[in-house]
Every structure is written in structure tokens, then in C-alpha cells.
Design brief:
The protein is of the alpha+beta class. Helix content is 52%, strand content 8%. The strands form two sheets. Strands 3-8-4-5-6-7 form a six-stranded antiparallel β-sheet, with helices on both faces. Helix 6 (91-109) runs parallel beside helix 10 (152-166) and helix 26 (414-427) packs across helix 27. The longest helix is centred in the last third of the chain and has 21 residues, at 458-478.
Amino acid sequence: MTRANHEPENLKPLDAAIDRLAETNAIEGVSPVFEVIDAAKPLMLSPEGLEALYERVPAIESAGFFGGSDWDYPQTLVPSLAARTVRHGESAATLVESLSQIRLLAVAKGDYTHTSISAEHAHHFLAQVLAMNLDLVVNDLQESDRLRPDQLGYAVQNLYHYLLQHLGYENLLEDLVAEVWRILEQRPVQVAGVKHMVTQIAVCLEKPDTLGGEVSDDAVQLINAVFSPTEGCREDPGFDVYTERLADMDDATLLKEAIAFAQAMHSTGLVSAYMPVFIRYLRNRWNELIPTALGLSYTGADAFHCYPALIHRLIDDALFPETSQCAYGLAMMLERGILYAPPVAPSLWRQIRLPLCDTAAEKIVAVFGSSRSPECFLLADVLNVLGRPLGIGQGNYPTCQSTRALSMWAYNMPAELLRILAWAARDDEITMRFEGDSISSRELGAGLATEPPVDVDAVSLLTVPHLDRIYFEMGRRSVGRGEDPHKWVNSEFHGDQVGHGFRIAVDVFTGGLKDFDGFIRDFFAAYHPFYNGNIPVINPQPAGIAVTDSATRFLGWHAITIQRLALDADKTMRVYFFNPNNDSGQDWGQGIVTSTHGHNERYGEASLPVAEFVSRLYVFHYDPLEKGEPGDVPADDVNRAMDLAKSSWAAGRQA
């Protein structure tokens, strides 16, 4: 990235401020960023100024401008928070966020390489932020934007015109709708950001020519799912009018409404705020129609009818327009059949009656507001998590291990999850055992989850800070044993279902590869049905991957869960896994692109052919009593995985 020859005079203060910042950081390790912010502010108001800032991304980054802040870790930034910060944040925060988005544009276009975020990740991030702020692109500024001090509203609008110009969209509306569907195909628990994107798309459909292209059926389906999924609410009439219409409907019309709600919910994963109004109305008129409205199969309907008092109470206490998504969570929980496990129904009754401690209640109010009680928001997200255990995301928490544990418990041990949640919500404490000793989160210092959470569900909000502290305390107690602490921590932390066999591809002291051929063969022998006696994955198992970008640069270690191995429709054996990082669709280079749909993935799963997956694997657990013969694994499979690894993240780690 080179600087233009013809630069406006007001660039000199910016360059001088960047130089002083770099010099000060080199000597004192502090970041007087306000000089850079003040110098960058006037440049935000013109395309030429934005171009000058773009050209200085490497200098701004290397000077330590983002150091000591969340922006220093762009891989953890959350689009919904970024969209709010740039529109409603304080002046300094808005400008730092704007410079961060200019930096991500440079990463997305390949003009700047960042050590912790890929070009694809940066592009997806900017697409989502742009979708949440579409009104800035196609409309005049709102009054609140115009009245921001120092012309910040105009600066932000100029930024988004600049992003739109440089992101390379030929048909912005079509591309942004595709981005929404890409996210929804993974069925995340948290969809507030997605609904905001759909809202912005709906507003901007009045000016489709501004965005390029015609309104697609995909866009209309999304908008209808959120605002008008049925004939009764087709023109988004408001709750009062809709309630009046329900009272005038006969049974046949109510049945049509129920079917339409179910179809819209299951086809998109989004729940309209009108659906809770409809279901709560049915509670007083026609309870038997609720399973139809939830779109339940025979399995789900049977569970509904086996536990009517519990289901009705969950609806009464948790399902409101503000918590509409829990209708989908409830439906999917019933479809999973987990209520037939004896401890689950009593655990849900405990949750319904659970008193929250002040700390827990204050956390929930701070994140979700006070339109409903903290108990209501928590119960709603309990249903969401139990219904979609593979839709849990870590948000801005750098705590993939704890989020992975929540997903594993919700998937396989729901009563255990509810017990841990009860401790955190009622007692503000979680206690776990490690090698016979009790560890209390209350007695430990802060872990990685030190910042206020963004874009996480209420279950994660209350439990992850406690779990994070315990996980790292277990790791501390395992240091000095001559092997990777995960060997002991994972089985104690996640539960007895974790295999006692443990394999790691790197030496914990040198970082170099260690018996990599044997590592690969052991994975195939333990997991691949062709070589382990056709034994499926009984319990999901924790594992660790070496994340790379599309250029095969190593970005870091990351915790995942191996869910299952199976043949796809093309008869290719694939590993299906859970990635807690909020978005499982990633390009890891060498043609290795994680799939989230189209290869028999279940909602929330990512998948890869076995050799491609193993090429990024660095640690896994297995059952040593149910492992095949490693020597039976074909050399071609081993060599393919090994070659892919050694020409990407493992390059330079070879002996």
C-alpha cells in the first residue's frame, strides 16, 4: 500500500500523530491515540480523506493504535456491536470503529495482511455491518445522525458509501440477502443482528434501484418471516389489531394461521413477534392447535402431549414478542425428545421456579433490558440453547472452550447444563471437581471473559465467566506434567463422556511436530468407520484445530467438538463438527472450505472430508478400547492429510 503523490495539506498532522504514537509506544508502551483520532476526524468527511486513511492502515496498525483495546483482536469483534458503536457511540469510539472498518476493508481486499483475521472473515464482517446500516447508503440522514457532534453522522455516512464502493458488490441487495441466508443456514441461537439486517433490507426495498438489482423471492421470504408470516398479519398491523383479528377468526382460519407460522419459522429459523401473540391467544382458546403452530412432527407432538403442564407453563412464562425466538427453541427441544430423559423435566421445573441472585439479574437487565423480567429472558434462552445446542456462539468472549462445553452439555447432558446454570443464576457460583478436589469459581480471579459480553445468550452470559475461571484453574493445576494440560482438563471439565485416550500433534515444549504420521493414523483408527469397526461417535468429543486463512497462514488454536463421521450424498466420508466461533463457514486455504450446508450437515454443524479435516487437527480425545489398527489406514489418506498440514500451519514445525 503506497501513499498517493497528491495529498491534501491536512494529512501532515495525521502522519505526524502516527509517528509520535509509534515512537511513544516503542518507549513507554502506552497509546496516546487521541492525537491520531483528532487528525483523522476531518479526513472522514471526504472520499479523498478516506482513501488517505486506507493507505495508512499499515502505519496506523504498526504504531499500536488499536493496542490495549478490543479492536486489537479483530477476530473477536461482533458485527452488531460494531454497527451500534459507529452509529451511536461516543465520538472517540465511533472514530476508532471507523478506522477499524477501514482496516478490515484493506484486509478483505488483500491490501493488508493481519495476523489474526482472514480476508474472508473481514469481508463477511463488513457485509453484515453494511447490511445493518443500509439506510445510510440509500436514504438521507436521520435527525439523530445529523445532530451528532463534529459532523459524525456525515462522516459515518461517507464511510459506508466508501465501503460500498470498494467491497465489489455488483448487486448489493442480492449479496446481502445471500449473507443473511448464509448465517441462517447455521441456525444460530442469537439472531438479533440478523433480524436487524432483515429490517434494514425491508426499509431499503422501497429504493431497490439504489442498491442494484430486483427484489428477490429470498428477500421477500425473509421479510415476511419477520414481519408478516400469515394472512392475519400480512401488512404488519400491530399487536392490538392482530389480537382483534384473531378473536374474529373461525377454527379453519386459525388452522391456516398456525400452519403459516410453522412454515415461516422452520424455513428460515426466524420467528415473527406476532407468533407469541398467536400462541398465547391459543392458550385460552385452542391448546390442541399449538403443536401445529410449532410445526411439530409426531415425535415433538408426542413429547408435547406427554408433558402438557410443563409445556404450557414454559409458554406462559417465557414466550412473548420480546422473546419470540424461544418458540423455535421450544419446538426444536421437543423434536429432540430430551424430555424423555428422566432428569430433564424436573430440571426445567426447577428453572421455572428459580430465584435469581442480584448479580445475575443485573447482568441480564444490562444486556437484554427490562421489558420483561430477567427470569423470563433466561428461561427463553434456556429453551433456545436446549433446542439448538449447535447454535450457541461465543460472541465477543474469547472463550471457545467454555462455549464448547455448554454446547456439549446441552446436546448430550441437558440436566447437567441446567444444574450448572442453576448454580450460576441463583448462587453466583459454579463448583466443579478436578482430580478429587473441589474448585469454586467464587474463589478464583477473572479468566479471559473480563469484558462485558456482546451477542451471547442469557445462559452463556451467566455461566461462561464462571466456567472460564474454572477451566484456567484446572489448566494451572496441570502445568508441569510434561504433557499438554488438555489431556487432564478436558475430561474433568466436560465430563466422563470424554475419551480417556489423548493425542496431540505438536510437542508442548518446542511447538514442533511429534509423531505426526502416528497422530493421523490414530485419528483414522479411532474415528473413521472404515477402520474402527464401523463404530459411530457415541458422545461428541472435544478437539483442537489449527486455524488458517485462505492463504494458509496460521491464525491460532481453536476448540471444536467432533460430532460425527458419515458419508455424504456423494459417498465422501466427512467429519461433522461444531465450531463455537459464531460462524462455521470458513476458507482455510488449499481449497479447504468448511461446509455448513449441502453435504448432509445438520443445523449448526460444519463439515469437511476426513483428510482435509485431519490436516488442521492438532489435538483429539478417543476411547482407547474402541480403536482399530492404525497400520490398516491407507498411506494415501495419511500422506494427503500430512502434506496439507506441512504446507500450511505445520510448515516450519517439522523436525
